[in-house]
Design goal:
Elements lengths: L1 H6 L4 H8 L3 H6 L2 E5 L2 E7 L2 E10 L1 H11 L8 H6 L1 E3 L5 E10 L6 E13 L9 H7 L7 E5 L5 H12 L5 E5 L7 E2 L2 E2 L7 E5 L3 H12 L3 E4 L5 H12 L3 E7 L3 H4 L3 H8 L5 E5 L5 E4 L3
Parallel strand pairs: 7-13, 7-14, 8-11, 8-12, 12-13
Antiparallel strand pairs: 1-2, 1-6, 2-3, 4-5, 5-6, 9-10, 14-15
Helix pairs in contact: 8-9, 9-11
């Protein structure tokens, strides 16, 4: 269970506080946040809960940070520069501190003076995409656009779509932030389907182009599209006969269409179906026209 993997990263008062919670409360936690000299906070759905009896000390932050990186920061220099790592249990640990920038001042070489840590619990909700599969994929693979605000469940839905569709079709998952598959080294901790090939850490536009060239997928799954480079790569995949299953931030499809890249893909006929997710994680199928 991924919550147990998260607890193994803790020490001191944060560890005591989490161990004191009963199993039902632990199962509801989405994120555990530690900030130096401030109370631990938990994200449960749309609620933030502050544990005033658990103050995170500098040594607690250091323990969690170094444990997540297996006490081998030099081996994970890329992850450190990006500010997150996926642990062996599949949880994603984000870190916040002082950036050491490269000479061009536009990229981060590494981080120092870690002040905050966020443990995002990897959780599968198998079956959450049943309604989408039934309405959008009843006749086979289709292009699908998923739209929702932050924390509306886009990643969770994509993960279950991968699992269901990836057991029937060859799929390439472009998992740039490793949030969908929770891959550690060469093993995906989440079930993303036996016919799914996972591209972890690739910038989306490179991952999409590479997948089309080397894996001949029937469909490509990618989260959080929006840039011009993303659009060009997805157009390349579309014109190569690959179906696109993608997600984008937005309150609605009309809101998402304000992004030029998304609007262009819609005009190109990339999507046969669209769904909107609400902050309460409700799913609504909408017309893409």
């Amino acid at each position: 269970m991924s919550i147990s993997g998260a607890i193994e990263l803790l020490s001191g008062k944060p560890l005591e506080a989490l161990k004191s919670l009963d199993a039902d409360k632990l199962a509801e936690i989405d994120e555990i946040r530690l900030r130096v000299s401030r109370p631990v906070s938990l994200s449960v759905g749309q609620r933030d809960i502050v544990l005033n009896n658990a103050i995170a000390l500098s040594e607690d932050i250091e323990h969690t940070f170094k444990t997540a990186f297996s006490y081998s920061m030099h081996s994970y220099s890329k992850e450190l520069s990006l500010g997150y790592i996926t642990t062996s249990g599949g949880n994603r640990v984000g870190i916040c501190g002082t950036a050491v920038t490269a000479s061009d001042k536009y990229t981060v070489d590494t981080l120092k003076y870690i002040s905050s840590v966020n443990i995002r619990i990897a959780r599968e909700i198998k079956g959450c995409a049943d309604g989408i599969v039934g309405s959008c994929f009843r006749s086979g693979l289709s292009g699908l656009l998923i739209v929702g605000p932050p924390s509306s469940g886009k990643t969770t839905v994509l993960r279950d779509l991968c699992r269901q569709l990836g057991n029937r079709y060859k799929i390439s998952l472009i998992d740039e932030l490793n949030e969908i598959s929770a891959t550690h080294r060469n093993f995906a901790h989440n079930d993303v389907g036996c016919l799914t090939d996972v591209f972890v850490g690739y910038p989306k536009h490179i991952g999409v182009s590479t997948a089309v060239r080397v894996m001949s997928p029937r469909a490509i799954v990618a989260d959080e599209i929006g840039s011009e480079d993303d659009c060009k790569a997805l157009e390349y995949a579309l014109h190569s006969g690959v179906k696109l299953i993608t997600a984008v931030h937005g309150e609605s499809v009309s809101d998402a269409r304000k992004k030029p890249a998304v609007e262009r893909l819609i005009r190109d006929g990339a999507f046969d179906c669209a769904v909107e997710l609400s902050p309460l994680r409700e799913i609504r199928t909408v017309n893409i026209d």
